[in-house]
Amino acid sequence: MAAIGVTVSHAVEQPEPRQATVEEASILGIQKAALVTHIRRTYYSDQGRPVETADIVVPAAHCEIVYEIPINR
């Protein structure tokens, strides 16, 4: 984004548990309808405008999702 003059200030993630689609199961090498975590990630500019999105799907049985949240004082 910096190459096109956009400063990314933060991202927001929305994790949601659900069952894998047939296509996702095939790509991930898991059984159809296995549990996955679907993460919708949106990056925002320093002016508050959404500038990029990502949909991430991870098998629930194969991954642990951990967040570190900084606390500003």
UniProtKB/TrEMBL annotation:
Any idea which GO molecular function terms this record carries?
DNA binding
Q: Where is the UbiC transcription regulator-associated domain?
A: 4-60
Which InterPro entries does this entry report, sorted A to Z?
Bact_HTH_transcr_reg (IPR050679), Chorismate_lyase_/UTRA_dom_sf (IPR028978), UTRA (IPR011663)
Identify one Pfam family in the record: UTRA
Q: Name one GO biological process term.
A: negative regulation of DNA-templated transcription
What is the name of the protein in this document?
GntR family transcriptional regulator
**Organism of provenance:** Streptomyces roseochromogenus subsp. oscitans DS 12.976
